[in-house]
Task: inverse folding
């Protein structure tokens, strides 16, 4: 039975919050140092990086997809946690001085500030490993499905996906502006692929034998959702800066950052986000999933203000 | 049919060298930039880090274990490459300024020197991801075996294994000396676990349904081999320093490095290496694998001079 009762994005997020946090905590070293005495500092830093708040958007999408398709939430939470570990590892490494050099993350000191750089490198490394370990052991799923998830996550996170997108972003910062096509490819790799995997994992958790056509449509929905998220992220970056710093919209371009507003202007970026959302919602409608939790999450992704 | 014809370690290494290098190259972005235009620099750096020489000891052990047990080499090369990707990623990250700050690796500039730090972080991240992708797709092995390999490698490489051992090493450097028990635990995690996995992957490539008793003995052989390797590594570090720098043996202790010679002295470290080798060879004998390629590799590990 598909669960497509209407719900606000807040209600959807609240519904899955505790199971997701439980799953994230369960696979990390326990907080008592005596449980992992090889390096109590590493244990603490792993928990700091993975359990330190955050919107949990990707695992929420995975869980929402699973229950929308009539699946059991229990089957989705570990695959969902695996995606969040990869996301958390990428934030820890992206914040390093050699990368984006951010001292703050989610309102707290970044991992390399709260601990040190060496620990932050190792925390990112260990969280990535943990993602694959958790997938391999995910309860309630056939072996073939778990193996398929390992393959999907590795493809999304590796040099063709997230890591390649981040490298492209580093290469392009301060260089001549990217074309819109190239900007979209970069973001599809850097951000979009994890959103896509979140939807795919939710689908496979509910229906390990899902037919190819349905899986393909859900995959495209995940891609559209990831693209809409990224455009809105870029727009909020500019408008928040305008409010807070009095910096004119679009000045990020002068700093060499490749963003949608910098490339096509704020108005066109906003309409691009809405067009992408419409596409995503149309796909949901075709799948019989309109007015459910995925619909609410997709709308909230574009309408959010932070 | 078990392959246990006697052979020198050089012959064993030479026999598997080309298949291992082929497998390592096959899963990386092709050298022509147009094949991976998202970031040609990342593509080049990945190849630089993974294909830049090295003894290939871990994948050689995996291949030697497989053929010793009568398996087909083809089944072992991709799992062997996965282990080498993890080893290569750990070297790239360990060489970073925030970690061991080494400018040279295998006689060439380290990855962060040849490229830059951001690229080195991403190269390490991408090589780790690739290891799991290659395991998930390893040809000629049942799904259950590939999933078991993902689990074994993740456990060996993650916070309980290699990453935890490296964190322990960083914590202990410059601190009061570790006890011998703790030093062995640190090295078992940091180095030993990948050796163990190399033997395990070779065994599972040859015999996906290997019985537990035999698998356990092979696992212990891998542990002993890893320990012997590490002790000899520490010994060579001291003796090479003595010859080259005129630095008295054991002075590493003054620098705060935890090594076997620093902790128990050079003579006892050497006899510890030989005792560990003897244990490893006894296990091989019990398995009917004496006088084969594993025997040759184990002896060479302890008798090597570099």
Result:
């Amino acid at each position: 039975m598909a669960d497509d009762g209407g719900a606000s994005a807040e209600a959807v997020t609240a519904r899955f919050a505790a199971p997701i946090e439980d799953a994230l905590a369960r696979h990390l070293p326990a907080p008592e140092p005596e449980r992992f005495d090889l390096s109590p500092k590493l244990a603490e830093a792993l928990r700091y990086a993975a359990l330190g708040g955050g919107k949990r958007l990707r695992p929420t999408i995975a869980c929402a997809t699973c229950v929308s398709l009539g699946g059991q939430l229990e089957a989705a939470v570990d695959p969902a946690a695996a995606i969040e570990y990869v996301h958390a590892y990428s934030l820890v490494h992206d914040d390093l001085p050699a990368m984006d050099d951010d001292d703050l993350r989610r309102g707290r000191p970044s991992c390399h500030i709260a601990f040190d750089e060496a620990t932050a490198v190792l925390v990112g490394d260990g969280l990535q490993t943990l993602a694959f370990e958790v997938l391999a052991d995910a309860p309630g799923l056939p072996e073939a499905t778990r193996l398929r998830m390992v393959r999907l996550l590795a493809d999304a996170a590796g040099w063709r996906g997230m890591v390649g997108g981040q490298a492209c972003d580093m290469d392009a910062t301060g260089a001549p502006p990217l074309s819109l096509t190239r900007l979209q490819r970069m973001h599809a790799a850097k951000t979009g692929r994890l959103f896509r995997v979140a939807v795919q994992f939710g689908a496979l958790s509910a229906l390990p034998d899902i037919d190819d056509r349905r899986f393909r449509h859900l995959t495209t929905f995940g891609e559209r959702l990831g693209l809409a998220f990224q455009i809105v992220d870029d727009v909020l970056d500019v408008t928040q800066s305008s409010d807070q710093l009095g910096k004119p919209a679009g000045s990020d371009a002068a700093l060499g950052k490749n963003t949608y507003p910098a490339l096509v202007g704020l108005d066109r970026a906003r309409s691009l986000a809405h067009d992408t959302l419409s596409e995503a919602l149309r796909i949901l409608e075709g799948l019989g999933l309109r007015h459910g939790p995925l619909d609410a999450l997709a709308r909230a992704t574009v309408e959010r203000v932070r």
About this structure: Confidence is low (pLDDT under 50) at residues 1-5, 245-252 of chain A.
